[in-house]
Amino acid sequence: xSAKPPTALSIVRCPxxxxxxxxxxxxxxxxxxxxxxxxxxxxxxxxSEGADRxxxxxxxxxxxxxxxxxxxxxxxxxxxxxxTRLTTAAANVGRRLACPDCGRQNIVPAPAAPKPTLPxxxxxxxxxxxxxxxxEPDAARLxxxxxxxxxxxxxxxxTxxxxxxxxxxxKIKCPDCDHLNLVHARQPQKPKGPVLVPDxxxxxxxxxxxxxxxxxxxxxxxxxxxxxxxxxxxRRQHDGPSEPGGASRAQTTPQPTAPERAxxxxxxxxxxxxxxxxxxxxxxxxxxxxxxxxxxVTSEIALRWAAQSLVLTVILRMGLGIFNAMGPQALFVxxxxxxxxxxxxxxxxxxxxxWLAIVVESSEGNDRLEDPPNWMSFDVAxxxxxxxxxxxxxxxxxxxxxxxAALDPPVQWGVAAGTWLVGFAVAxxxxxxxxxxxAVVSPRVAYSLFRCFGPWLLFTVEVLALxxxxxxxxxxxxxxxxxxxxxxxWLATASVLVYMRLVGRLAWWLADAMPPPDA
Length: 519
What we know:
Blueprint: E1 9-13, E2 20-24, E3 31-33, E4 40-42, H1 45-49, E5 74-78, E6 85-89, E7 96-98, E8 105-107, H2 139-145, E9 150-153, E10 160-163, E11 171-173, E12 180-182, H3 220-239, H4 249-252, H5 258-263, H6 293-296, H7 299-324, H8 330-363, H9 380-403, H10 409-434, H11 443-451, H12 453-480, H13 488-513
Antiparallel strand pairs: 1-2, 3-4, 5-6, 7-8, 9-10, 11-12
């Protein structure tokens, strides 16, 4: 029994949609239905034999045209007046149809002939493909093959298109945004030089720029020990008494370490320099007298003093205007009074942080504000230290007035003022020592009143002299030149800054004179 020969297949195209169909040779001459568009056509020999040749005709033989599509059953058109979309049966073609919106009588047009479905143009001609393995040419070969194409980047949407030689010097439209772009000729690529550097032209290192040997590393604990020893030597040199056992200061100088001795550096060069934040400045013998004016004459304090004095002058003028306007016009002065209260509160919130900064920086031995507060900081937390300390000192002064009720009023008020000035210093230093604005009583600060009676006595004398000078100056200025009474806020602000400076210098003195908290 002989084997059946294999069936030969042919490729044909549908005349309506261009779909390729595979048919057997023995089916030539029969009718077939396209699986895409459903059109029926006859499989002719010309179509089966010449379907693979470019340009071959795929039209069916005469008489085998596919049946025409049935006419549409409905007709849709727009009203001539209001453009309302109307739909009616195809049997009403040529008749008049009233628009339901505007009532216009429209003649029903004939339905449009259906457009034949044509295969997309991209299906004909050369098709895009993918390079196979090891088939892609190199860049030079690609540039040679594409020499007739000139890249054009759209100026508007940055779309990349390619133009031909005939379009060079002309404008072409971008397919995305329709912007016209001028075509420039492709720039010839310059030949690349060799990648390898010839022998003898490599980079060479300069021996003179070689890094120097790193200095020996000193542990931080040893450095801190040297700094503490250096501070102790400076303190003993300033105070005067010699070390116990008759040892000289030269013997207490820290000796260089083994790596430093191996480096051959002199002993004085091995002492590390004083770094900011690691040690405090050396305290003078009498901090309440020596160096008090250094911070007060700096530009930062001078500018803030002028600004605070000017604002305080405006506040007092506004307040005095209220008292002078008692009468029928008092109602018109109420906005001025409200403005004075608002500006006064803002002045306090911007001034109290500066006073606290002066006290803190002075307690560290600084002669200028290293970290001044912002002019418009309005820091309520820092202002609370000054405000609560003032309140505590005021309560103490108020209690003093009852204890001195038998004295004359000038003496009574003088004692109350002195109590307030000293009580404010105690309350503020207690709050700063405890780290809370509400801790206005500190056992350590209270103990310093007895342990360091001399500094406290000198501080009391200075602040009382300052208050007396301010009171006498104000009384003399108002009695002698009343027109210059606007200078009183300037003098008062300057006195307060000096007072805060004295409080900070007192804190510095007490910190060095009092034993450590854990002693």
